[in-house]
Amino acid sequence: MTLCYIPLLDGKQIKPEGYALVEQAKKLGDSVTAFIIHCGIDEQTIRLDCEDVHLIELPEKQWPISSIHIEAFRSFQEKRTDEAILFSSSPMANEIAAGLAFKLDRPLVNNVMDAVRENQHLSIKKEVYGGKACLYDETGLCSIITYDSAFLPPVKSETDRRAPAFHLHIKAEGNANIRFIEKKKLGWEEIGLTEAACVIGIGRGVYSLDGNNRLDMIKELAKVFNAPVGGSKVADELKLVPKERRIGSSGVSLDQADIYIAIGISGSSQHLDGIKNVKHILAINIDPAAPIFKRADLGIVSDFKEAVPQLVEIIKNKSGVNNSENISHLKASV
């Protein structure tokens, strides 16, 4: 038996990783149970390929507080001692998994690539040495496991099956010293590269010897996607981006990004190492032989000065957006 903590967007919508997590759970046992802590999900939208779904509803201001999730989960899980518990790795999920492992005295294994059941243990696979090698290990059947979302395979978001749903009435009280103050959406200039769902990277191809500022159109694209801007090693050396926003093995690795837009980046091995976990890559480069195209899901062979304005216009038109203020890549329907 395996229990999946289903990740939600703002407590009301199942994230794509939730469906993939259920598929992974089938490798660990014959029976899969979904556990959802929400603040107003539409039950008609819950179509998970599992045996049953257990739901706990929290007030909207309590849902972002991890300690309340831990207590709610612990109350539900106390008498269920013979099943693995799976999470899709994220800052909030990792905090809940760690707290639950402590409360239930269970083994915790973080950022797993894959796990399968073998006799009386679980065989796990993890990245080590910055992704340059893999570690194979064993853990108990009742372990708490967080999956690296980069390795969760894409699956059909919905199934025709509707598992029976059970509403649990559990009074969960978290740490009295922690309370929700406000929710604020960060602008593209405030979001960290490692936290963003969409990231823009620039390279030598954006540099201008004549001193003309070519970054204005990049900033416009960043506004449309609400995406922070980083760059290659060369972009750092040319002062196009600050050193802390260098992407690659000598800088930042993008482990959480769903989309990476590489503009004027040739694609050195050290840069590709920093984007190996990105799910989808769009590359814009004037050189059709640039190595970045081998890693890209979509490539545009063009001068970025022509391609970027057209991309901005396409996104605005597709999303029905008349201006570029405060628009995320999700709202842009990419």
TrEMBL record:
Signal peptide: none annotated. InterPro entries: DHS-like_NAD/FAD-binding_dom, ETF_a/b_N, ETF_a/FixB, ETF_asu_C, Rossmann-like_a/b/a_fold. Residues 193-276 form the Electron transfer flavoprotein alpha subunit C-terminal domain. Residues 12-163 form the Electron transfer flavoprotein alpha/beta-subunit N-terminal domain. Transmembrane segments: none annotated. Pfam families: ETF, ETF_alpha. Belongs to the ETF alpha-subunit/FixB family. This is Electron transfer flavoprotein subunit alpha. It comes from Siminovitchia fordii.
